Amino acid sequence: MLRAAPRAFNSWDAIKLFAILTMFIDHSGAFIFTEETDRWLRAVGRAAAPIFLFLGGFASSYRFKWDLFILAMLMTVSDTMLAGQLRTQNILVTIILCRMLLDWLERKGKTIKHPYQWLIGSFAWIGTVMLTQYGTLGLMFALCGYARRRSTLYSKQVQNRMLVISLVAFGAISWLSFEFVAHEAAIMLVMLAIVYWLLSKLELRDIDTGRCPKWLVWVGKTLSTYSGYVYALHLIALEWITGIPF
Fold first, then answer.
1. Model's pTM, two decimal places?
2. Contact status, residue 87 vs residue 244, Cβ threshold 8 Å
3. DSSP tag of 242
4. Count of beta carbons in the 10 Å neighbourhood of residue 147
5. Coil, strand or helix at 204
6. In the chain, where are the structural domains located?
């Protein structure tokens, strides 16, 4: 039985629920509402990935999570069977790789002294999108989360500039990839602006849920805690129901 962690509902949960909501909107546009006029759903959904990737770097620990690895492999097997060729392009693989790199740095007792150089290096390897979803663009957001969590090491100005650079790169690539028309691009820009506002102000703190029903708080914490399961299992189900590889 799934159990939400015995803790207060916090800002981590809230922003992750926003990401889950936009993820569902994105996937409804990918699998259900697939007409040209419905492509604005994919524009709204551009908000999800930056948040998940950012939180991968913002996490307090980068220890290897076997359940995340198993879910990533399950998705890889499912995608490969459906597509008829090897596919490793799911965001869980990207998050795992980012966490492994940051964990290696921590175990070596190292900190990132020149974050801009890391961002430039990550973008230079953008061709890795052919191997994993978002490729090293995902690492750019993880680095933003890494810097935000360590406010004593990096100034607010550096943190915000890193986030702006990453969001601009992500927005430009998304616009080219999806070939968004004017109103779809405008929707995407609004969503990315919201993401910037949320992530640039993110601090881990409890949120007063005294006026909310306990069952609703439990649902929110459970979805947040098991967001990897939610992502993988609903995506696999949608792929096999519709026959559309993601």
1. 0.94
2. no
3. H
4. 24
5. coil
6. 20-202+227-237
